[in-house]
Amino acid sequence: MLEPGEATAWHVDPYSRVSIIIRGTALAIEYRNGEESKRVEVVAGQADWDNPTDEIHRAVNVGGESYEEVTIFFLDRNDAIPQPVAE
Q: What is the DSSP string of 32-60?
């Protein structure tokens, strides 16, 4: 869960995943390489498929309410880390 203004850690997404939005209205996806951030409007019940990426990024809750999602990661081994933190 992210409260308004909170951000995830900088990370990569090496695995495919499905995310289902539980609550929230908007996220900004910021990129460590300086690429322009992207605003993503969301609604409860929305489901999205995301492909793997090695781009270092984070999500920031830019909406006016708490953001929460359920994510299913398609991992290739038991010790896999779904979203490794980028140093």
A: TT-PPPEEEE--TT-EEEE--EEEEEEEE
CB 2 within 8 A of CB 8: yes
Residue 31 lies in a domain: yes
Question: Both ends of the chain: CA-CA distance in Å?
Answer: 22
Question: Is 52 a domain residue?
Answer: yes
Count structural domains, the chain. Answer: 1
Domain span including residue 18: 11-73
Global confidence as pTM: 0.91
Q: CA angle 8-34-48, nearest 5°?
A: 45
Which tens digits make up the pLDDT trace of 26-85? 999 999 999 999 999 999 999 999 999 999 999 999 999 999 999 999 999 999 999 999
**Is 24 contained in some domain?**
yes
